[in-house]
């Protein structure tokens, strides 16, 4: 799928990995609708210029998500893609000092990371399916953000790991279903990236995380995530699977 002249929604594009993707898509000549719950998305759209706009969107909200898709559909270039980057990563133990894991906090993580991604995907896919196909029959591409926590989840990550395993789980069936419209579905499972999500952790934790990947022995950069999203968008054979982007890290645990 070409990027130039086409429109893409970046959910969670106001920060971190999503912001890097939005920047990259605009740099490649695409248009982006940044759909984020935070106002940082509006500031980024402003700096990216006329081919970027912002729609305040809670990805769990049906009407807000539909509004973001409608705004994308109103852009001059056809809607060809969704990059799902909105997510949260709070830590809580199954049984912690204050008692059992709160059920509402577990549901909130799954609600944003998994159900929110699906909410955006179903609405964006319906709109992309209405677009004329390119010469090879392709209409668009959806990229979801999972995490290596789906398989290497750490203490305190039951909700997060479960939500990301759900994202990986829906990738193949969604790709199979949407194939008839010429829409591909991929997921990326990042290792540990230098974004506000990780920078909010204590310095010692960040240093220990950065030392984990065999090579390169450092945190991933958001631009490296955007680079993979670019490769997925432009390569029509990438479909129905999850790519780990992690410098060979396999998180241990006790
Ligand atoms: N940074 C990492 O190491 C890492 C690793 C693996 C996976 N991920 C995943 O990558 C994605 C992006 O994470 P990041 O590191 O860039 O974090 P980030 O906190 O920098 O960005 C997340 C963005 O999602 C937005 N968001 C949160 N809840 C939302 C909601 N309900 N509706 C709309 N937007 C919402 C935030 O406002 C923010 O702009 C997340 O899904 C995260 O789980 C990150």
Automatic annotation (TrEMBL):
Keyword Lipid biosynthesis set for record: no
InterPro entries assigned to the protein according to its UniProt record, in alphabetical order: KR_dom (IPR057326), NAD(P)-bd_dom_sf (IPR036291), Sc_DH/Rdtase_CS (IPR020904), SDR_fam (IPR002347)
Ketoreductase domain segment(s): 6-191
Keywords: Oxidoreductase
Keyword Flavoprotein: no
SUPFAM superfamilies named in the record: NAD(P)-binding Rossmann-fold domains
Residue ranges that the Swiss-Prot or TrEMBL entry lists as coiled coil: none
The family this protein is said to belong to: Belongs to the short-chain dehydrogenases/reductases (SDR) family.
Protein name: SDR family NAD(P)-dependent oxidoreductase
């Amino acid at each position: 799928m070409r990027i130039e002249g086409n429109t893409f929604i970046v959910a969670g594009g106001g920060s971190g990995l999503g912001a890097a993707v939005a920047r990259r898509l605009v740099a490649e000549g695409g248009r982006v609708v940044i759909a984020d719950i935070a106002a940082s998305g509006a500031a980024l759209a402003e700096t990216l210029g006329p081919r970027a706009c912002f729609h305040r969107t809670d990805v769990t909200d049906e009407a807000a998500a539909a509004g973001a898709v409608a705004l994308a559909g109103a852009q001059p270039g056809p809607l060809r893609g969704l990059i799902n980057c909105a997510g949260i990563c709070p830590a809580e133990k199954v049984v912690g000092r204050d008692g059992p894991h709160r059920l509402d906090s577990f549901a909130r993580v799954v609600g944003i990371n998994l159900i929110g991604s699906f909410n955006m995907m179903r609405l964006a896919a319906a709109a992309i399916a209405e677009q004329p196909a390119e010469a090879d029959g392709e209409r668009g591409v959806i990229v979801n953000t999972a995490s290596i926590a789906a398989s290497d989840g750490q203490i305190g990550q039951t909700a997060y790991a479960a939500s990301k395993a759900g994202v990986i789980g829906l990738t193949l069936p969604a790709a199979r279903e949407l194939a008839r419209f010429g829409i591909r579905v991929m997921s990326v499972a990042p290792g540990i990236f230098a974004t506000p999500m990780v920078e909010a952790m204590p310095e010692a934790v960040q240093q220990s995380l950065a030392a984990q990947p065999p090579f390169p022995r450092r945190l991933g950069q958001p631009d490296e995530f955007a680079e993979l999203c670019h490769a997925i968008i432009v390569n029509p054979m990438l479909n129905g699977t999850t790519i780990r982007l992690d410098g060979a890290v396999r998180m241990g645990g006790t």
